[in-house]
Design brief:
mainly alpha, two-stranded antiparallel sheet, 4 helices, 2 strands
Length: about 90
């Protein structure tokens, strides 16, 4: 994918924005599993801790839901997804 980062915002915030855009565009749909921290880190060319921080932020916003043994999934809550589409 070749992610491009700028110096105007922290990288983890740019990763959050990238994932939000992927959800809005339909790349990731409600209840769909997203790639692992490690996969996203390799794809983005960043430290896994940076990706972890971005995903944790998305979880705190309710956009992602963590399943202990299965990974992270896009929420199925249509209210949250609608708000995401409006806000972004």
């Amino acid at each position: 994918m070749g992610w491009k980062f700028t110096s105007d915002r922290p990288v983890y915030i740019q990763i959050e924005h990238h994932i939000k855009n992927d959800i809005i565009s339909g790349l990731y749909k409600g209840e769909q599993q997203i790639p692992s921290v490690r996969q996203l880190a390799v794809e983005a060319g960043v430290n896994p801790n940076t990706v972890q921080r971005a995903l944790s932020e998305l979880e705190s916003e309710g956009i992602l839901v963590s399943e202990t043994t299965s990974g992270r999934f896009v929420t199925s809550d249509e209210k949250i997804l609608s708000k995401l589409r409006i806000d972004e």
